[in-house]
Structures are given as C-alpha cells and as structure tokens.
Design a protein that fits this description.
rod-shaped, mainly beta, 23 strands, disordered N terminus, about 10% helix, about 350 residues, four-stranded antiparallel sheet, five-stranded antiparallel sheet
C-alpha cells in the first residue's frame, strides 16, 4: 500500500511539473513588447459562432461574447456550442489586425472543454487562411498558443474540432483572448549606406507618437534598439563601421503600446572612392549619383573637380557648407549669365570622375 502511494505521488508530481513547464514556456511569450488583447472593448455584435447551446428550459446565456468578457473565474458560464464537431467562434474586428497569440482558459467541465482547434483568418469572411493548429488541456487550465501571423486580417476565428471527452454534448470555452499589436507597423522602410552612416526612412503611421529603431548584424535579428522614441519618419545611424552590413526594422508607438516590426531593410556603409586630384587630366566628367537614384553629370576642368573633392572631404569631416555649387558651363541655356546646380552632401550616394584630354 505504501509503495502504491509513493508511486502515485511521484506520478502526480511529474505530471504537475510537465504541465507547469508547458504553461510557463507558452506564457513566456506574453511579455513581448506591445502585446494587447485586441478583443477588449469590442461590442457583443463583433462575436459570432456556428451554434450556441440551446436546450429546453435552460435560459442561461452561452453566446460567443461570453468567451471574451474578461471573466476568468467562472464555472459552466462561458461560451458553449450546441454540437461537438467542427464548430467555430469568430470575431469581426472591423479593420485588419495582426494577431500572434491565443490565450485560452478551459471550463471546469473537463470532458466538454475544447480539445483540438485551428486558428483561421480572413479578409472577406469567406476564404480562410490557417494560422495555427493545436490541442488544449481542460479542467480550468490557462494556456497560451503562439504563432507568426501570415498577415493582417479583419476576421479571425477559432475552429473547434472536438471536445476532450469526444462526446456528443457540446464544446465549452470559459475565456479567450486574441492577442496582437494594437498599433500599426511602419511600412516601406528604406536604408541607404553612406560613409560611416546609414540613412533610414519609412512611411509615417497614423496615431503614432514615436518610433523605435532597431538594428541587427544578421538578417532576421535578433534586433537591438538603437534609437527609442524617434519623433520623425527618418533617422541617421552614425554608430556603424564601413564595410559591415546592418539590418534594420522600425516599430511604432502610441505611448501605451508598440506595433510589430516593419519590413527589414539593410545597408552597407562605405567610403566613396575618390581619385587623387593631382592625377586628374585636363578635364573630367563628374557623375554624382543621388540617394534618389538620379545621376547628375558635369563636364568640368581639373581645378573644378579638385575643388569639389576638397569640399566633399571637408564636409565628410564635419566642416564646411552642406551644399556645393557646380557651374553648368556649356549647358547654360537661356538669357542667364551663369547657371549652377547645388548639390546637397546628405543626398550624395556615390560619385565617379572620368578624366579625359581636351586635345
């Protein structure tokens, strides 16, 4: 008898440890930056289900909104279907949302609790894309299931495949949360490498009060925040090394939550190769490529090219004016005594000098 009790105690302890590790490992994702329950505050009309418990004489409400009412301590009072196979509970968010986690609490009615399930998403409430599939534990257990979303969708639903008891009564859900980022992620992040710096720009996000710039030395991260709470939609990273490739993402904040990361953009800062002014021929073609991708070409004397190179070196060292005037010479069309192009240092991506002799 004592031996039997000892074995039972060890078995219970082992099972408890396994369950604790399972819940803890999933719960570790709950502390990710910017996570919020996106169903919080939605009207009851946002929730729907394939069926709702309906038995003669039972006047209790087991509607789909009961699974999202933030009541985590209850027994036999959440959502319940009227069947036990391939049911579903859905949410219409009214706009596209990116969701990456399901937090689920089972009811105390163990054999009727949800078991196998599939999380699906759609933008037309007709064509559904699978996001995650798994199996839940019952009997008042709280679990979290995490996935990487395939995109942002207006409609989300949980397909309830069966209950734990695999019986023909109902499927019960005490409570659910669909968790993601409330703030929209920035789009169109662009990185441009220059000498000892990388210029970043992105499309602004409506409602954002700031942006967090993050960097990694490997594509896909992990990323480290290098500039929190940037107020504009651009940033220059001056803490880089020439010849090294950097990978960037940006997230938006609204003071209370943080969005998912933007697209990744990479750049390799490098010094522009400049010819020795003393080796220039009589004349040269100076071709300047701007950060916009536009090429500007100038036919200049050796002295004019040298002057440009001297200005560029000085500005690169942090001195001198931010712009430089280049005389257009033979391209001086119209009734003008002179025409000049003003080149902005920060807009220069690269340039080249091609020498030639005027003879």
């Amino acid at each position: 008898m004592k031996r039997w009790k000892s074995v039972m105690i060890k078995t219970i302890i082992s099972l408890s440890l396994v369950l604790s590790m399972f819940v803890f490992q999933n719960h570790a994702f709950a502390d990710a930056t910017g996570e919020v329950d996106l169903t919080d505050g939605l009207p009851n009309s946002a929730f729907s289900a394939s069926s709702v418990w309906n038995r003669p004489g039972d006047t209790r409400n087991f509607g789909p909104e009961k699974a999202f009412d933030n009541v985590w301590i209850e027994n036999n009072a959440g959502f319940s279907t009227n069947a036990t196979k391939n049911e579903w509970i859905a949410v219409d968010f009214g706009k596209e949302q990116s969701i990456s986690k399901l937090k689920y609490k089972a009811d105390l009615s163990y054999e009727y609790d949800m078991k196998d399930f599939v999380v699906q998403a759609s933008n037309d409430n007709s064509n559904w894309e699978k996001q995650y599939s798994g199996s839940a534990l019952g009997n008042d257990t709280i679990q979290e299931f995490v996935w990487k979303p395939t995109g942002s969708y207006r409609y989300w639903r949980v397909q309830l495949i069966n209950n734990i008891g695999n019986n023909s009564y109902c499927i019960m859900v005490a409570e659910m949360e669909l968790i993601g980022s409330k703030q929209e992620a920035p789009l169109n992040l662009v990185a441009v490498g220059k000498n000892k710096m990388v210029d970043l720009s992105w499309s602004p996000v409506t409602g954002a009060t700031g942006y967090n710039v993050k960097r990694a030395t490997d594509t896909g991260g992990p990323y480290t925040s290098i500039a929190p709470n940037v107020t504009g939609d651009s940033y220059t990273d001056n803490t880089v090394i020439n010849g090294m490739t950097y990978y960037y993402v940006v997230s938006a904040t609204d003071g209370s939550s943080e969005s998912l990361n933007s697209n990744e953009a990479s750049a390799t800062p490098q010094k522009v190769n400049q010819p020795d002014p003393e080796s220039l021929g009589e004349r040269a073609i100076l071709t300047i490529t701007l950060t916009t991708g536009i090429d500007k070409e100038y036919d200049l004397s050796a002295e004019e090219v040298s002057a440009f190179l001297n200005w560029y070196d000085a500005r690169d060292a942090g001195t001198g004016p931010a712009k430089y005037a280049i005389t257009k010479h033979n391209n001086n069309k119209g009734p003008f005594s002179a025409r000049k192009d003003y080149v902005i240092f920060d807009k220069i991506l690269t340039f080249s000098v091609d020498e030639y002799s005027a003879e």
